[in-house]
Specification:
The structure is a single chain. The chain is α+β, with helices and mostly antiparallel strands. The chain folds into two domains: about 80 residues, no CATH class; about 140 residues, Jelly Rolls. About 55% of the residues lie in helices and about 20% in strands. Strands 1, 2, 3, 4, 5 and 6 form a six-stranded antiparallel sheet that branches. Helix 3 runs antiparallel to helix 4. The relative contact order is 0.10.
Length: about 230
Amino acid sequence: MDGYVNEFFSLGSLPGHLAYLLIAISYYMTSIYWLRVLAVAGLFLEILYFRLTSDNLTTGIGWDGIFILINLYQLFWLVRDRLSLTLPEQDAPLLRDALSGLDDAQIARLLKAAEWKTFNPGEILTRQDAPLDSLYFLLSGRAAVAVNGSLVTYLEKGSFIGEIAYLTGNPATAMVTIDEPSRVLSFNRVRMAKVIASDEAISGIIYQMLGRDLAMKMRRANTRRVLLDEPTGV
C-alpha cells in the first residue's frame, strides 16, 4: 500500500496527473474551442507520461496521436472561423457590455442572424397583441412602451424589445414606438434559433440576458406605477 501511495505521488507521475487533470477540466468547458485546446495539451502530457513510465506503450501513444490530430484539425477550423468574425468598431463596446459573457467571435456569429436597421420617431416596432417574428436590440436612441394605450416606460440603448413574444411564441404584449432616432438590431427568429442551436454557450447566456432584461423592465414599470399612484401632498 505504501509503495502504491509513494508511486502515485512520485515526481515521475506528475506529467500523468497534469495530463488527466487537463483532460478532466476540458470536460467542464462550455466553449468547444477551449475544450479542444485543453484536450490537446492533456494528450501531449499523457504521451510524455507514457514515455517516462513504460518501455512499450506504442498502442496508447499511437491513439493519443490520432486524438491530437483530430483536435488540431478541429482547432484549425475554429481559429479560422474566429479570425473571420469581427465586431463593427463603432458598436463593439456597447455589444460587449450588453452581451457580456460572450466573446467577440460569439457576438459576431450572433450578428449573422441580425439586420441593422434605422428608425425615426413615431415608427412602430411592435404592436400589442400582434404576432412578432423578430427580437430587437436597441443600439442607440429611445423607445416608448405602451400597454392598452397607456405609457408604461421608456427603453434606452442596450435594451431588448419583444423578448416576451420571442421566449413564449405569443403575440407582443405591448406597443413599442420609437421616441427618438434609433439604430436597432433585428434578430429573425428562425436565423437566431440556428445560431443558438450551434453554440450551447450562446444559448445559455442569451436566455439569461433576456430574463434579466425582462426583470429590469418589470421593476422599472412597477416603480413608475407606484410613483404615479402615490398621492401628492397638499
